[in-house]
């Protein structure tokens, strides 16, 4: 798999590139946001994953993430020292697929890269059901992956849509956390649990329906159909 590593520290990039290469990745190193965006021009050979450090010298990492998402659907894993939920939600809202908080274990990073690539391959090969869901003021178009509330389109990331669609197809049914992670993230890796919590929080904020997804303590989540 080709991987774009966006990292301004050459020593860190060299060490990480060596590890990734030993695990079968073809690594391209970009030292700043501008180099990363040039590497992602449409006519270039596709990358399987972008590993984006947020501490870049020329542009804010979040800004670079937003620009990447506008020009390609390549999965983006953010690398950040910011561990608060708000920062993570902001990154996911900009289109990041996952995040790793510094300092991180190399094994964890590799697991997240493989998990993201598996999810993307699964999505590309899956057939989207021809269906339309109406839940109160919310409309979910499964074929086009479009969601609107009161007629206004809500922009969701791939994983946010997958999570919402899973819950919305069986409103009122409690989905166990393990089941959601298995079906949406295509993995049983325990580290994905925190990512699930962040995605639920992001969905509640974007849809402006805080009671839509109910937490069932100790079990998982369910969608409570809103009134029209």
From TrEMBL:
Residues 130-225 bind DNA. Transmembrane segments: none annotated. CDD domains: REC_OmpR, trans_reg_C. The keyword S-adenosyl-L-methionine does not apply. Keywords: DNA-binding, Phosphoprotein, Transcription, Transcription regulation, Two-component regulatory system. One of its GO terms (biological process) is regulation of DNA-templated transcription. GO terms for cellular component: cytosol; protein-DNA complex. PROSITE patterns: OMPR_PHOB (PS51755), RESPONSE_REGULATORY (PS50110). InterPro entries: CheY-like_superfamily, OmpR/PhoB-type_DNA-bd, Sig_transdc_resp-reg_receiver, WalR-like, WH-like_DNA-bd_sf. GO terms for molecular function: phosphorelay response regulator activity; transcription cis-regulatory region binding. Residues 2-117 form the Response regulatory domain. The modification 4-aspartylphosphate is found at residue 53. Residues 130-225 form the OmpR/PhoB-type domain. This is Sensory transduction protein RegX3.
């Amino acid at each position: 798999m080709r991987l774009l590593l966006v990292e301004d520290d050459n020593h860190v990039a060299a060490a990480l590139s060596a590890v990734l290469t030993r695990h079968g990745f073809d690594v391209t190193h970009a030292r700043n946001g501008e180099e990363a965006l040039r590497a992602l021009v449409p006519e270039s050979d596709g990358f399987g994953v972008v590993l984006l450090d947020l501490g870049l010298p020329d542009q804010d990492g979040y800004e670079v993430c937003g620009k990447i998402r506008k020009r390609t659907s390549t999965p983006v894993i953010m690398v950040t020292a910011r561990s608060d939920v708000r920062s993570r939600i902001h990154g996911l809202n900009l289109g990041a697929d996952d995040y790793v908080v510094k300092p991180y274990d190399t094994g964890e990073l590799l697991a997240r890269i493989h998990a993201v690539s598996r999810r993307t391959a699964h999505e590309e090969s899956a057939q989207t059901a021809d269906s339309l869901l109406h839940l109160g003021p919310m409309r979910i178009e499964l074929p086009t992956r479009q969601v609107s509330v009161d007629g206004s389109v809500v922009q969701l990331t791939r994983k946010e849509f997958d999570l919402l669609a899973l819950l919305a197809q069986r409103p009122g049914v409690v989905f166990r956390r393990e089941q959601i992670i298995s079906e949406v993230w295509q993995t049983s890796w325990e580290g994905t649990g925190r990512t699930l919590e962040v995605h639920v929080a992001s969905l509640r904020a974007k849809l402006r329906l805080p009671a839509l997804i109910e937490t069932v303590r100790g079990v998982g989540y369910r969608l409570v159909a809103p009134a029209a």
